[in-house]
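Service request form, structural biology core

Requester: graduate student, group of Dr. S.
Request type: structure prediction, single chain
Budget code: on file
Notes: please return the result as structure tokens.

Sequence provided:
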Amino acid sequence: MKPTQSFTLIALFAASLALPAFAQTPAANTMPDKIETRIGTLTFEKGFPTDSTIEKLYDEMDFQRAVQAYLWAYPAISFHFCTVGLKRDLGVGYNDVALWDNFADATGLFLTANTTTIYAAAAMHLGRSGPMVIEVPAGRTIGLVSDFWQRILGDMGGTGPDKGQGGKYLVLPPGYQGEVPAQGYFVVRATTAQVYFLTRGIVEGGNVKAAADLIRKVRVYPWSQRDNPPPTRFISASNRPVDTLAPATMAYWEGLASFINENPVIERDRFFVAMVKPLGIEKGKAFNPDDRQRRILEQAVVVGNAMARATLFKFDERYGGPDMTPLPGTHWAWTMVLNADQESEHYSQIDERLHYFYGATYMSPAMKVRKAGPGSAYVQTFRDKTGAWLDGAKLYSLHIPANAPAKDFWSITIYDNQTRSIIQNKTGKGAISSYDKLAVNADGSVDLYFGPTAPAGKENNWVETVADKGWFPYLRLYAPSEGIFDGTWKMPDIEQVK
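Core staff response, request fulfilled:
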């Protein structure tokens, strides 16, 4: 066939489809001169965006990325501000141990701390100190080392390889290639340069001092000084004002810039680190945002904080599913749906991670057991029986049925919904537990009360709320039993007392 014949046939075929021989750009791919969007009017000249439209689009792109970076970074920035707050308010530096030797209390702002165990914490900077040694004493402690993404690196104490018999743990920096002893240490390889050691002393028989004294036997020091270890510095944190909360201000981004500069970027996070580069947060460079970057970051931290709050308070209703609650038909939900490694089969758990760490600090597999035995199980709610948010101005009751599924004990701690910290009330009491001298019903059940004023004769079973505050409870079950997992123990919703 001649070329002219081929061209004629193509033209005839195109004509038979009512199309021009040389098709035009489809309308769906044509940019009109003006379009209306959620960010306002966008204008184009023959497909080219105007200068004002380019500016508007880049501002929106950077704003969206900054909001997502806020949500992504929260676990690490939460740990960052734990370190900042403890240093600023209590003088606790790297390798020092902050010890809540008379329990955590409402004087300090810490995400959902409890008041039934003796806490201790030590931040370490392996990038500065090199490998670190943690000596854990024999006795009833439950501890762990976590990276700054709050991923557990290793258990210690009763849940660790020393099995409560004590031992030395050697924590190695990321990518460490130096000497590693063949014996004498349990070796932990870190994934961030900054890490946290956290431990709890279990109070037995009401002997708080004994639990605190046991924690004081912990030793933290650089491995380079192992032949002559310096004494570990303990600083009491009980009943002392300290603020460890991540602020919704520019300080949040200053913390992120510091974290990125101080720690290796793991493969999972490379896209997020790229997203904050146009906003002045770049590894190896000082954070010095210009006016445009500052304006976007100031807006993004406010929106990000609001999104995080929504994720905490309504996560179960957004993500749903039968595995969200152990008490079907109620507003109670598991506090932890996050896996300890923060991974699921097909994705990294960014929303699950935000849901938990916006309301709490650190986790280990022992805190999320789903079967009877050692460990603990946590459930939470933010609503009463009618679905209304819990209001500090109202009086509520909660019926704890007999035979609560906790071999050791159960506790309910009340938190301020603004700070997610132990409620600050006039009584100074933010929790109630099976250890307390409660009025018990004839069938072994217990009725608890939460409100600004105690019902007459119910003072021992009451926790004070604050009239102008919202609040929420954690129910903690220590050494949980089958009733919370198989549905045989049925606790109702919190209900307003009319």
